Amino acid sequence: MGQVIGDSIDGIAVEGTSTNSAAVKGTSTNFDGVQGFSTNAQHAGVVGTNTGNGMGVLAQSAAGVGLAAKGGQLAAFFDGNVVVTGSLTVKGVDLGPSLLQRIVQVEQQGANVDQLIQRVSSLERKVASLEGQLNTAISNLTARVTQAEFQISGLASLSHTHSG
Asked: Residue 94: which region, alpha, beta or left (left: phi > 0; alpha: psi -120 to 50)?
């Protein structure tokens, strides 16, 4: 088999078109099947676009890693929802079912906190009511003590007038 080389300044250097098979295919026994490079910050080294409902890029491996990404700022950026059907490991920590369990526990603790807040609010209202009742009782007791002191003072002056 031969080699195809394309060179262009303003247009597509190599193009492949097919109706029922891959338009461009790269196969290598000892190196990458296809490579793409770009030095422009606004463009990617490789682009895969599907104008229908299919995937833009499919990455598969029979026995190794399906997709590896490494970047100077980020390894990956996702603009949209992400679905993970397997486990998710971050810095050696599996965030699969255990993360979901932790989230459920935190949500339950949040509900418990809400209940505690309601109970504390109820207790605060009860304490305020008891403070009011206590202040009323103290005022009543103070009035009675004052009245009793006045009566004792009157009795004391009567006893002085009768004893002398």
From this structure: beta
